[in-house]
Amino acid sequence: MSDVESLRRIALSLPEAYEQDHFGIPSWRVAKKIFADASPLKNRATLKLDKNQQMILFEVRPDTFSPAVWGALIWTYVELGRIDDAELAELVKSAWRQVAPKALL
Length: 105
Hints:
Layout: H1 4-12, E1 18-22, E2 25-30, E3 33-39, E4 44-47, H2 51-60, E5 65-70, E6 73-79, H3 85-99
Antiparallel strand pairs: 1-2, 2-3, 3-4, 4-6, 5-6
């Protein structure tokens, strides 16, 4: 099962990704835009995923994926203890692609 250290390793393996504090929790960014953050005490990640991908995850696996709502923005909470590193890697790559500059894609 995954954890915050897995998330960190995966996120930092992506082109031009870096870690930065975000209100006391780690976040991972590319081109100054957040694509993931983590709540270490909850062993939970928050990822920026495509709306269609989110809806599928929320419906099929509500015990693992849930909406993280900030006003009009909806990101995805991921319970890290419920997924393996391979699945987490695919999701983090998808989140990275949401914000990465086209030249990096």
